[in-house]
């Protein structure tokens, strides 16, 4: 009801943005805070530290209050005194031997070195799958999307399949991928690549559709051929929007990797979690969970640093 | 670019002003009708082409049925097992058929997103204004959005057992960061000119919140809800695959154990269709909420 009124008033106001005299109570809601879109980075750091400390403390507290056990000796909520000691040495079970540290199954001792080696080697497996899947999926997904979006007809034809793909419950198809490509490296990488490829495909198709028509028209007016317009005008202008696609696909790659390791894969961080769950080792699940959170946050941070360059040319880029 | 956009919007606004009295402005139309009108007949053709390709590939025997079952096979399976199915019943997945499991999964997803809205929207809206809240909500929720929350599912299975609770909690944790970010952005993106002009026209505090802030942020929040919902179906499926009393994911895992490829395809396609229909419905709601047009999407 008030919307059209506001619309008309907006026109009037935009020509004269001088502040109105006589600030009412309601106006205080609007004015002073309007120029505060971003959080002070110092506050952010302080908040992060406090959140981490509180969460870590809460975990300990829950462990003290709730002393139930999954099976004798394996608590529901293992405190830090367990997670940082026995859990690390326990993870040595997942080290397959080498580098002078014998595997536990071959009669080796459970040592801190063995546990750390297990975390690093399985983390490496997960990471390699993610990187390979991301690269393959990003390249193929983008290429297919660019071909499809090359013409208006292609864009119109593929609009509905793209919308269908966007909501497609792909993670439910893991068993199919394992039947098709096996549970080893290839199966996991293909699955991640497809999951990432879908995001890149829908992202690029959308980005091309969103390119401001004025850029393309301008190039055409100046006499650029369609292909040249596509390469020199459309491609650069979709890059800023690709940033969120890249971030989205990174999160998806992690989820897909963990999912494929939960269901079938024989190595990787997700594999340790599933294996530990069968034996009720909540402490091992917990430590690996923390490793996953740290690794995922690091990759996210790195990617967001690197991709910041994509939006540099935008006049009102939002970091 | 900004100048061009501003110019465009003023011409659009003046056009609106001259035609404002017309009884059938696009905003008054039935939202469903608007979506139907906005959809393209060629889009349907794209869907048909893909179905035709699937049919040809399997009919010609280029792909073995073990890898890709024929479309009519999948359709017949879905039809036979939709309402009532011995196959489903003997696996302890309810007294009905695929439909019962579909309802289970759909309920989980919708309920979880609804809970996420209740949690995330107030925090998101408030965090755009209250720095003290934001210094805690930003680090925790943005990190939650960046890490694979799926890693929590095995914990929930240990703590809650095989029940709906763990799945719901997981889905809520996936949806909350997304909706939070959109709600927060909705406030920061809302042009202060709307509030200012409303004040000039003399509205009070209550009407300012109701007619400007709520109305102004709703479209962008709904956009976030749409994105959260789109991702939720996948998470629901994998969560059920890992352990649930019933649901489409459980169905897939039992079919996979019996290498019933046709069953897996039927299940995933039915779920995908429901997911798409939900998305289309939400898009209609979005267009209705955005009929005054602050967000161009």
UniProtKB/TrEMBL annotation, chain A:
The keyword Membrane applies. GO terms for cellular component: plasma membrane. One of its GO terms (biological process) is transmembrane transport. It is a multi-pass membrane protein. Pfam families: BPD_transp_1. InterPro entries: MetI-like, MetI-like_sf. Its main location: membrane. It comes from the Bacteria. Residues 1-24 are annotated as: Disordered. Residues 123-303 form the ABC transmembrane type-1 domain. It is found in: Cell membrane. Keywords: Cell membrane, Membrane, Transmembrane, Transmembrane helix, Transport. The chain crosses the membrane at residues 43-65, 130-151, 163-181, 187-209, 251-273, 285-303. Belongs to the binding-protein-dependent transport system permease family. This is ABC transporter permease subunit. It comes from Nesterenkonia salmonea.
Automatic annotation (TrEMBL), chain B:
Residues 102-286 form the ABC transmembrane type-1 domain. CDD domains: TM_PBP2. One of its GO terms (biological process) is cellular response to sulfur starvation. Keywords: Cell membrane, Membrane, Transmembrane, Transmembrane helix, Transport. GO terms for cellular component: plasma membrane. Residues 1-28 are annotated as: Disordered. It is found in: Cell membrane. The chain crosses the membrane at residues 38-57, 109-128, 140-160, 166-183, 224-244, 264-289. It is a multi-pass membrane protein. InterPro entries: MetI-like, MetI-like_sf. Belongs to the binding-protein-dependent transport system permease family. PANTHER family: ALKANE SULFONATE ABC TRANSPORTER-RELATED, MEMBRANE SUBUNIT, TAURINE TRANSPORT SYSTEM PERMEASE PROTEIN TAUC. This is ABC transporter permease subunit. It comes from Nesterenkonia salmonea.
